[in-house]
Each structure stands twice: as structure tokens, then as C-alpha cells.
Amino acid sequence: MDQSAAEQGLLKRLQKGDLSVFDTFCLSIETQLFSYVRHMLKNHCEAEDITQEALLRLYVAAREGKVRSGPRAYAFSTAHNLVVDFQRRSRRNSDPGGQVQSPSGPRNEASQSTEQGILREEIEKALATLPETQRSAVMLREFGQLNYGEIADTLGASLDQVKVWIYRARKHLAQVLDQDGQFIGEQARGA
């Protein structure tokens, strides 16, 4: 059974009140959804809240028969919109820098290995240099593991536009990261 048929079956069972199937579905996407939100926000606590809110909204919408695309795409689309709203509120309510910093602590999995942490920071620097649409598209693909059609639905764009965004993002990342994943920045483009 392919993923879309399985998701349609999930929606039918959920509309009939089968909560266990929704729990199983949430367990299957929660880590990827959280990872996507966490990389967009750099704030562990807000990422947890937004992930849970997106799953709650999916549940309510699915029970009411309002989920038109697959539930996976719906959850990522909802999470993406919540992230954008949070970022807008943060910019209005914070200092001009507006960057929300990540709390450190034992729950931050990226800090388990110093080398992995440094590499992740370098990649995040490179991702931050992308235009918002390209960054969202590539992160939905890499962290959310959504297919191009699901990304198009999530971002409200055409399939062709998503392909262009991801192509340009990957090309740009290849220019600003060296072969070891170190951020070399814009100055290396002409070199």
C-alpha cells in the first residue's frame, strides 16, 4: 500500500473515531515534524509547542473532514504557517536583531557531539543565507522528508516553483559550504 492510500485510510478511520490510528500516525511523523520546526526556529521549547499545536490542529481538521491533502502534508503545512506567525511576532516584539536563541541543556541532541554540533552550526549559517522560500522548501525536503508535491501544497506554490527553489538552494549551499561542510560564505563565490 502506498503512502497516499494509507493516509486516506487513516483519514477515514479517524473520522469514524479511531484515535489509536491517529496516535500511531503522530508517532511516525512527530520526530520529523519537530526537526523541521526546530531548525526553522532555533528554539527548542517553541518548536515543541508548535509541533504539538500542528498535530492538534490536524486531529481537529481530520475529525471534521477538512483535510483535503494527505495528513502528513497538512501537518507540515500547519507547522510551517505557525512558524511563520511566530517569527513575525518575534520580529515585532524583539530587538532589531530579532534572532531567537536556542536554550542549551541536556535535551539539545545536537550538542551531544562537539564535531556534529560544529558541523550543524556551519550548515545552519549556510541555510540562513538562503531566501525564505528556498530555505523552507529545502528544509521541508531534507528534515520533513516531504515529496515535492507535498512541499508545493505546504508552501502554496506550484510543483515547478518548488523544484526551482530546491535546485537553487542546493546550488547556493554548494557554493557557500566547502567539501567538509564548513561555511565559507559569499566571499568564496568568485574565488
Principal-axis shape equals: globular
Number of strands: 0
Q: Quickly name the level 1 CATH class of the largest domain.
A: Mainly Alpha
Rg, rounded, reads: 18 Å
Helical amount: 55-70%
| CATH architecture group name of the largest domain | Orthogonal Bundle
Overview features:
Rna Polymerase Sigma Factor, Chain: A; 2 domains; Arc Repressor Mutant, subunit A; 8 helices; 191 residues
How is this structure best described in words?
The protein is mainly alpha-helical and 191 residues long. The chain has two domains: 93 residues, Rna Polymerase Sigma Factor, Chain: A (Orthogonal Bundle), CATH 1.10.1740.10; 78 residues, Winged helix-like DNA-binding domain superfamily/Winged helix DNA-binding domain (Arc Repressor Mutant, subunit A), CATH 1.10.10.10. It has eight helices and no strands. α3 crosses α4 and α7 crosses α8. It is globular and about 55 Å long. About 9% of the residues have low confidence.
